[in-house]
Amino acid sequence: MFPQLKYTKEQIEAYFAQVTPEMVQTTLGRGKLSFFDLLNLISPAAYPFMDAMRVRAQKARRRYYGKTVSVYAPLYIGNTCVNSCRYCDFRIQHTGTVRRNLSLDEIRREAEAIRANGIDSLLVVAGEDPRVNTVEHLAEVGRLLKTMFSYLALEVAPQTEDAYRALFAAGYEGLTCFQETYDQERYKFFHPAGPKSNYENRLWTQLRAGRAGFRTLGIAFLLGLVPWRTEAASLAAHAWYLMKECYQSKIQFAFPRFCPTEGGFQPEFPVDDRDLDLMMLAFRIAFPECCMTVSTREAPAFRDYIVQVAADNMSAGSRVTPGGYAVLADKDVAQFTLTDGRAPDDVYAAIRANGQEVVFKNWDNRI
Length: 367
Ligand code: SF4
Hints:
Layout: H1 9-17, H2 21-28, H3 35-42, H4 50-65, E1 68-78, H5 104-115, E2 121-126, H6 135-146, E3 151-155, H7 161-169, E4 172-180, H8 184-190, H9 199-203, H10 205-211, E5 216-221, H11 228-245, E6 250-254, H12 273-286, E7 291-294, H13 300-309, E8 313-315, H14 344-353, E9 357-359
Parallel strand pairs: 1-2, 1-8, 1-9, 2-3, 3-4, 4-5, 5-6, 6-7, 7-8
Residues 81, 83, 85, 88, 90-91, 127-128, 196 line the site of iron/sulfur cluster (SF4).
């Protein structure tokens, strides 16, 4: 569990088991939700209330984000990695994946291809390889990309607070770091070696980035590794902790479901559509002001639905291959399978068909 939480996994599980329909109803009648209100909304007793939750979530979403959907794209700059995550085909032991780190010129070509789709917010992603992705290199990449995009976010290995200051100065303002699981024992099992085996170092990544000035702090667990309800309780506690400690930053939730990989890892606790829907509605109600993103891992129908009621942000036309947009557009060396393979224009058209507006730029500190 998230270490600052005063409850054990067993206590949280016992709580879920005794939530009644009346408790869910009482929660839905409240304005500001507490930790236990959130637990009520993600408990099995909440299933019959999903229509009411959808109405309330949509209202909260509209209040903060109107009828808009922000779009972004990831740019994978490299897939070499020194870690051993059992569920990922980029792990050091997996030899079946072609490894590649893009040169600055290749990164520029990829960025131009993304820019041609209208995208103005970019997530820079790399495997954890301190030999290649040094702070200096990431800063150089940031300075290059900042001339082309209004907003840059990073999803790379956890860094020190000083490194985050340097990266912020180079143009990055958002950070995403999935904890994968908040369960310390299972974390040890899934991450047996490499720098990522250090649970605490990963856990406080957003705190360090927030203190270094990052505006958006992305948090998530990987859905499928352990039972999702206790993980969601930890995620909520993590969010409330960061909102207090880094009050100048925005929290961004993601709910990445495990997708099949070439390496064949099978999640023990897959999360179905109904549970994902329930969780995202509950988080939108409990955290109305926070950002929420839905990735290309999800099917088009689910993405088009959830951005109307809960999520405010989605990727479009993603390629999860280093070089996948322009340099190696014909070969896929992906970290996971994409479920939404629509072209960006088709994603934009679907958003507009639902009466929403596509937002390419919602922040630019260069002005
Ligand atoms: S999940 Fe990330 S850190 Fe782990 S092996 Fe894959 S790329 Fe490396």
